[in-house]
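hey
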């Protein structure tokens, strides 16, 4: 099958979150199974700074009403995945990936450029797979204002429903050259605005999100973040497929970033060595204490406040807490002051480091992930792969991937008390029921979280989309 992926980030080129992992590892799995995959990405400044050996192909222009904008097209390839990088100094020559006042305009330009390139190069893919709000408008563009008579088929994946891609109504004509009819008919309208995510839901042939439980949440008014009405109309074309992980990158048997390798058969000594190395890195002296790790963006979505609220209790019970991440200032400050109060039990690294992330996954006993909402979540799956038991809130993909008392711990209500009950279970198995803990670690280490099953489910969705 010939597949085009359109997204705003992809490993190993540019990443702010799990989206980048998914685009890369799903594409790679498809390529390894004989499919032809091209990923469209903005040629961000940080990507240029990496000094990629991307090949310049040609330039062209896209019109956005009165704007006449240059696009440069570069080709690149990683592990058989083809990339089309869209170059614009004006839109992508910036320090960050997003967070600019004109993000709506930047990704309108991106979608228009993708349409132009697909047409100009006569790519004729079987499927165009668009991800999140940044690419959500492409089906509306290519179906509502096609450049040729080739019929495209689209799949939209919702990774993060909190971001709707809201734009003022006038932007439809001003940025996308689309007529107001699309707004008036309701096709791209949400809450009195244009929403590029809503547009994707309306125009895509099939819609997916990244776990079955999150699919059901998105159809439930209270949990859907405002999307249940829209999705109700597309219910029959809407499926949940849980993300896999890159089992080669995250493999305790071969990982060169951790101090000693281990497997299900013999994990105890070497996992313990990984724990000691991690605690040494943070100068934490108590090596025999239960160690709780966190690798996360520090943001409200991730339920970080629940960790801070339980931290003193955990420390009283002898825990070490190790934090890796960055994000909202008050959460960063919360962990920093916790470390200042308890320098022998708390380690904090504000920022991101792949290297250290691997060490936290391998060296912790427990992995904290008390998210408020979590479409899929990747950290908990990686933790399990390293035999580190996740403690999660029962939401979205966390429900589908963590089974209480079997391969992790979970709690239902988003409040500190509910989380404390799950923490108590973790303390219990660590201090008082070592046989059960051993059993759980072994179960986690045996899980198969490769992309194979999920890729087959995507292929099925692609086939169904092509029949539309
Ligand atoms: C978003 C979601 C996360 C999911 C990831 C990849 O970041 O918040 O739950 O794992 O996308 O699909």
């Amino acid at each position: 099958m010939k597949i085009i992926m359109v997204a705003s980030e992809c490993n190993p080129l540019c990443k702010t979150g799990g989206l980048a992992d998914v685009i890369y590892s799903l594409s790679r799995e498809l390529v390894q199974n004989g499919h032809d995959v091209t990923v469209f990405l903005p040629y961000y400044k940080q990507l240029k700074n990496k000094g990629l050996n991307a090949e310049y192909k040609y330039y062209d222009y896209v019109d956005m009403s009165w704007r006449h904008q240059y696009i440069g097209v570069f080709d690149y390839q990683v592990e058989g995945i083809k990339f089309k990088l869209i170059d614009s100094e004006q839109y992508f020559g910036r320090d960050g990936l997003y967070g600019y006042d004109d993000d709506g305009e930047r990704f309108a330009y991106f979608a228009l450029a993708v349409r132009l390139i697909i047409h100009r190069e006569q790519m004729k893919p079987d499927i165009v797979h668009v991800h999140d709000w940044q690419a959500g408008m492409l089906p509306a563009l290519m179906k509502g204002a096609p450049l040729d008579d080739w019929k495209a088929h689209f799949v939209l994946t919702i990774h993060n429903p909190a971001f709707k891609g809201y734009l003022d109504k006038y932007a439809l004509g001003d940025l996308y050259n689309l007529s107001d009819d699309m707004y008036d008919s309701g096709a791209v309208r949400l809450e009195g605005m244009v929403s590029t995510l809503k547009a994707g839901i309306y125009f895509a042939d099939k819609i997916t999100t990244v776990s079955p439980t999150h699919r059901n949440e998105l159809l439930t008014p209270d949990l859907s973040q405002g999307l249940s009405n829209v999705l109700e109309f597309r219910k029959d074309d809407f499926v949940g497929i849980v993300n896999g992980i890159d089992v080669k990158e995250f493999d305790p048997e071969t990982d060169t970033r951790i101090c000693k390798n281990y497997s299900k058969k013999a994990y105890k000594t070497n996992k313990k060595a990984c724990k000691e190395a991690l605690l040494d890195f943070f100068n934490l002296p108590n090596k025999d204490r239960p160690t709780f790790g966190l690798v996360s963006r520090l943001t409200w979505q991730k339920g970080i406040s629940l960790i801070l609220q339980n931290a003193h209790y955990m420390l009283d019970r002898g825990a070490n807490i190790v934090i890796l991440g960055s994000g909202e200032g008050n959460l960063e400050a919360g962990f920093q002051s916790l470390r200042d109060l308890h320098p022998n039990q708390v380690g904090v690294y504000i920022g991101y480091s792949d290297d250290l992330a691997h060490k936290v996954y391998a060296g912790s006993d427990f992995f904290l992930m008390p998210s408020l909402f979590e479409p899929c979540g990747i950290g908990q799956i990686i933790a399990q792969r390293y035999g580190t038991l996740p403690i999660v809130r029962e939401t979205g993909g966390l429900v589908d991937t963590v089974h209480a008392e079997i391969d992790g711990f979970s709690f239902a209500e988003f409040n500190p008390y509910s989380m404390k009950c799950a923490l108590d279970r973790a303390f219990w198995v660590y201090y008082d029921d070592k046989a059960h803990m051993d059993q759980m670690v072994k179960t986690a280490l045996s899980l198969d979280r490769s992309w194979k099953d999920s890729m087959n489910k995507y292929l099925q969705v692609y086939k169904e989309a092509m029949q539309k």
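The longest strand covers residues 67-78. The chain has a mean pLDDT of 96.
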